[in-house]
Amino acid sequence: MARSAGVLLHPTSLPSGVLDYQAWVFLDWVQKSGLTIWQMLPLTPPHDDLSPYQGLSAFAMNTRLLPSGWQKQVDIKAFEKYMLEPPHWLENYALFIALKTEFNGQGWFDWPEQYRHREPEALLTFAKTHKAALDKVKKQQFYLQHIWHQLKDDANAKGIELFGDMPIFVAFDSADVWANPDQFQLDGNLQPTVVTGVPPDYFSETGQRWGNPHYNWQAMEKDNFRWWRLRVEAALAQFDLLRIDHFRGLEASWEIPAEEPTAIKGQWIQVPGAALLTQLQQEFNPLPLVAEDLGIITPEVVALKNQFNLPGMSVLQFGFSGLPDNPHAPNELVENSVVYTGTHDNDTTLGWFNELNSDTQHWVLSQVRQDVGEMPWPLIASGFDSIAERVIVPMQDFMALGSEHRMNIPGTTENNWRWQFDWDDLPDGIEQRIKSLVISSQRLAPEKGDA
């Protein structure tokens, strides 16, 4: 596979925060810089905390990305054609959003019983009396998909791949769980019996209780993982490459009894990830997935990743522990992988470096390129020079920004996911600086030459 390089920037971080002309200006910038991958976070609609990893739907797009005046841009004829064969999830999602609005934003599990349990007559009556509200939701999704496919076509024409992200679990308060309760481990009152998380570790003595419902893998196996196949099909219509977040959950998941307040009393439960990936590989061949395999990974998870020849991830900020066999250390990286300076959950590289004590800073600098200027460039250059087939750098690192520009601080809920860049803050000559690294590390797309 050809070596390549890209940038991590969520579309909400564009200067306008929406899918307007700025997205195309950014594509031009990516191309001028010699980069061929634009990676982003999940595009699905978030809850009020704006986290793209807890969506209202695993299929719909985030309406906060709609440019102002979008209503006037909708081609009614094209919309009517779209509605002749709408996406399978659209009607349920429109109902879900309209009902959520009707009941002041409450979770579906707190709605009146006839809606909570999806009584057909009640839903039909509601849909008739709220037709305008449902139509608006459908038009929003139609227009977002229309813009997105234009953007993807134009990116691909420039030799740029769009790299998406798929959270392994879905939020309890989502159209997916409401519309497909049989696909999740819920009781007779539609409450989760077990919830997701990770066990206690070095970072947290109570573990992490995420609270998503677990999949009913037995039911999913019976229909050949239909929900998953539809989900991946929709994602691969939007992206050229797809990261599976928390990939280790496809080998075994930490199941916590729903009544437990912490993750301590959970247990690892095997899941049929190999059967799922086999099904997906038959349907989408080659299967353009990247496994997010950060954290404590077992030999079984490594075997599952290798069985399907999926690239994993390395993060250079984690690479300077001095411990042997650290998979993130510059000299321990592997070819079939994606290497990052940092991710959306990390501090910016400059912020990270400035927080290190001076001895550790000296140690880091002794392990990386010295001839490329000040941090974060030594780390960026090390990623580019590495053996990894793909290198991705967050936009904040290309711009040499500090901690105040980070995207997310895990474990906090305030003021995350809001960062936006400004073209005026880009350092002079940044495109040439990046492109020279692309060329020297042999990551320039051959068919594009130096144009």
Describe the model:
The chain is of the alpha/beta class. The chain is 36% helix and 12% strand. The chain has 17 helices and 12 strands. It has helices spanning 21-32, 70-73, 76-84, 90-102, 113-116, 120-129, 131-157, 175-179, 217-222, 226-238, 273-283, 299-307, 349-355, 358-366, 377-385, 395-398, 430-440, and strands at residues 4-8, 37-39, 161-166, 194-198, 208-213, 241-244, 252-257, 267-270, 289-291, 312-315, 337-340, 390-394. Strands 9-6-3-2-1-12-11-10 form an 8-stranded parallel β-sheet. Helix 1 (21-32) links the parallel strand 1 (4-8) and strand 2 (37-39). Helix 4 (90-102) crosses helix 7. The protein is globular and about 70 Å long. The protein starts with a strand and ends in an 11-residue tail after the last helix. The mean pLDDT is 95.
Distance between the termini: 22 Å
Largest sheet: 8 strands, parallel
Q: How many helical stretches? A: 17
Summarize the amount of helix as a percent range. 25-40%
User: Would you tell me the structural class of the helices and strands?
Assistant: alpha/beta
Tell how many strands the DSSP assignment holds.
Answer: 12
The average pLDDT score comes to 95
Q: What fraction strand?
A: 5-15%
Per the principal axes of the C-alpha atoms, what is the gross shape?
A: globular
User: Which strands sit side by side, in order, in the main sheet?
Assistant: 9-6-3-2-1-12-11-10
- Return the string of H and E elements: EHEHHHHHHEHEEHHEEEHEHEEHHHEHH
Instruction: List segments where confidence is low: pLDDT < 50 over at least 5 consecutive residues.
Output: none
Question: What is the C-alpha radius of gyration, as a whole number of Å?
Answer: 22 Å
